[in-house]
Design a protein that fits this description.
Helices cover 42% and strands 28% of the residues. By secondary structure, the chain is an alpha+beta fold. The protein has 2 domains: 114 residues, SH3 type barrels; 56 residues. The termini are far apart.
């Protein structure tokens, strides 16, 4: 491996740590939030469509997203590690048997639909269900700990109040 490749690998690793990317593949419907500079203002513009290709080339990795806008097909190529990309969200997982989906360019309407990958969704729901159950258990444990702490504080406050009332009762009986 030459020095340029080593440099690119280190730089790509740093960029991926700064902004983690979701795992997506061709056939997935993605929403890419892009920073757009208009004069002095900067805003975020969403581009949602089907990922039709990915190119893996280190720092030069890119992906192509296709959408239909007002009846016209629009494709946009995004550099994967570009600082202009704010975030990438996977909206829907698609099930395809090709790495490049350029054949979608010639299809219209229902013929251009991509079947949803339900196996991924089921796995994700199970994982999310386990995560939610773990979070609930953690919240319940925290609530129980807080309740125990509150009860101990309340008990010590009651003991102090009882002791104070006993002292005042004792003083009153001594005064009589």
């Amino acid at each position: 491996m030459n020095t340029i490749q080593e440099f690119e690998q280190r730089k790509a690793a740093v960029l991926r740590e700064e902004r983690p990317l979701p795992k997506f593949k061709p056939g997935d419907t993605v929403r890419v939030n892009v920073r757009v500079v208009e004069g002095t203002r900067e805003r975020i513009q969403a581009f949602e469509g089907v990922c039709i290709a990915r190119k893996s080339a280190g720092l030069n990795s890119s992906f192509t997203v296709r959408k239909i806008s007002y009846g016209e097909g629009v494709e946009r190529v995004f550099p994967l590690l570009s600082p202009r990309i704010d975030s990438i969200d996977v909206v829907r997982r698609g099930s395809v048997r090709r790495a490049k989906l350029y054949y979608l360019r010639g299809l219209r309407g229902k013929a251009a639909r991509i079947a949803e990958d339900t196996s991924y969704r089921r796995i994700q729901e199970e994982t999310v269900g386990e995560a939610v159950a773990a979070a609930k258990a953690e919240e319940e444990a925290a609530a129980a700990a807080a309740a125990a702490e509150t009860n101990s504080e309340t008990a010590s406050t009651k003991e102090a109040a009882t002791t104070a009332s006993e002292e005042t009762t004792t003083k009153e009986s001594n005064n009589d």
